[in-house]
Each structure stands twice: as C-alpha cells, then as structure tokens.
Design brief:
With 116 residues, the chain is mostly beta strands. 0% of the residues lie in helices and 52% in strands. The protein is globular.
C-alpha cells in the first residue's frame, strides 16, 4: 500500500474553482489527505483501468486519522467499480480516495473539483 500525493490547482474562467487529482492509484493505495477549503461542495470523478474486481471509495475525516466512506447527494455510499462522476454530500475537513480491490492492472485516477 502506498499513499499517493495529490496535485492541486485553481481552475475555471476566473480561477474560482479548485481541482485536486490523485493519479497512479493501485490496488491497496490511498491518496494523501487533502484539507478542504471551508464551505466548498465537492464533486469527484473516478477514471482509469479498474481491472478485475477493481473498486475505489472516497473517504473523509474531521481529525485526519479516522476515515469513513462518504456519500453522494442521494445518500448512497461512494464506492465505485467503474468510471463515475458524483457529487459528494458531506464536507469533512480532510478527504482522500482509497482503492479497496483490484488486480495487477488496476490503475486509477481520482479528480475532485470544488466551486465557490
């Protein structure tokens, strides 16, 4: 298991949004925690090669130690086995992706964006 670093940048016509990306996520990897800006509702996009049985979750924590799987705006746990784009219901202090299953071909990218 490896903790993968994120890259973050301002995006949008007036650079009012933030995009955060964790690339090269393999089976068992998680993303380095990203501290959320106050009051920004995120959406998260999962892409890449899921491989046999590949799955990824999006987690949050308010203490940076104890993480739980977050929910989409419909109240469904964010756990995906194929490419997806979802709006996140909760806005915890820290967020990260975590690959929970897969094989030797599993290589995923998680990109989160937040508007103002």
């Amino acid at each position: 298991m490896t903790t993968r670093a994120f890259s973050a940048s301002r995006v949008g016509q007036n650079f009012e949004a933030v995009a955060v990306s964790w690339a090269g996520l393999l089976n068992g990897d998680d993303g380095a925690p990203f501290e959320m800006p106050s009051g920004r509702q995120p959406s998260v996009h999962f892409a890449g090669t899921f491989g046999a049985g590949g799955a990824i979750v999006f987690e949050g924590s308010n203490d940076g130690t104890n993480y739980v799987t977050l929910n989409d705006t419909g109240g469904t746990t964010i756990s995906k086995t194929s490419a997806a784009l979802v709006a996140v219901r909760e806005v915890p202090r820290y967020v990260r992706p975590r690959v929970t299953a897969g094989d030797g071909t599993t290589t995923l990218v998680c990109t989160m964006t937040m508007g103002r």
